[in-house]
Amino acid sequence: MNFVDRLLGTFLWLLSVAVVAGITHITTIFGLPAFMEQNPLAEIAARTKTGEVTLLPPPQADRPGLPFTDPAMVQAICPFDLAEGGLRLHAEPEVDRLLALSFRTSTGQVFYSMSDLAAQQGKIDVVVLTPAELEAVESDDDEDNPTQDLRLIAQDSKGFVVISALAEFPSEKAQAEALVKSVSCAVEPLAEE
Amino acid sequence: MSLDQAEKGRRTVSAYIILPSLFGSALGLGLLFGLFATFIEIKRGNGFSALIAGPWIGWPRSEVTEIDPYSRAILAYSGKRSLSESDAMSFVALTDSSGTRLDSACDYVLTGAIPRARYWTLTLSTPAGELIANPAGRQGFTSSEVLRNSDGGFEVRLSRHARPGNWLELGPSGKFILILRFYDSDLSSPATVLDAGHMPSILRDYCG
Description:
The complex is a heterodimer of chains A (193) and B (208).
Chain A lengths: L2 H34 L3 H8 L6 E2 L17 E9 L4 E6 L7 E7 L4 E6 L8 E6 L1 H9 L10 E4 L4 E9 L6 H10 L1 E5 L5
Chain B lengths: L2 H42 L6 E3 L2 E4 L9 H10 L2 H4 L4 E5 L12 E6 L7 E7 L14 E3 L12 E5 L6 E4 L7 E7 L17 E7 L1
Parallel strand pairs in B: 7-8
Antiparallel strand pairs in B: 1-2, 2-3, 3-9, 4-7, 4-10, 5-6, 5-9
């Protein structure tokens, strides 16, 4: 082995170290979110009854709950399973109270979110459908009488909605809770023609 | 032993010992460096999607902006994933405006500009995102609760001892963090440019 061979060998060795390091780094960075954690909200959703609005316990000091939750927000969760139909969510937000809705996949990723600012004539009507269900519903649409519903497509049939309302003052907690509970959220079978 | 045999022997050594050990060491060192780089990035970094304004670090809401893999990994590792999946655009401060870690042994004043939003909330929390118990039972302020000066500005005092005006009681636990959340703001849009002047500054008073 002469000098050039040795140099080439060392270079190749260093190159392979760098390649392995790069692959390891990229794999761990991409793999970490899936490996690290179950989304705590997704875990709660899996244990909660579907098609129903369930209030989440407010975050409290010295009691492990959902980390990084805003204590001024009253939160509720409504898991759904679109196997039996579409999810219909109806809310009548109050004037000047933040009502936020976020639609999530079963792993907790947000696929759509909105606030009461999106309400039309004081009402929010959302229908969550699978792509196949949307096709079926759209084929039944009456063209002269378009629907007022906001239609969302969920790629998976399972998921959940997080409904939250802001209590601007601690004394408004009860009102915020009442607003969250007034949201109806149920899976209903598609209308048969 | 002939010269030929010696050469053969050297080749065998090369094939069975040197080459595998070179291969193995490259693999081992590579794995080590790769994991180390990941560890450093997760522990110290903020990722490319983070918005940094003075002591405040914010992550765009994940459904508005595609978050880069580094930020995603960092958020997952630190348990802050819910911040980017929240209805609010959230900012976290771990340090005061001079870059020193927030410590409940000190007094702080939070004051200055605040970005426009329909509502905002300020929350005091442990570095793990849990609320801090305090006798006053106050964990933060909402934009409606905070007392303002005649010019609309405000000042929040953070201390273990009672202070006039907007007072947030610090717990005895030592390290704490502050979380600012903006609801219905346009801060999440990818075009947002923020610098320290747009966000409240956190000034350390005295420590004792």
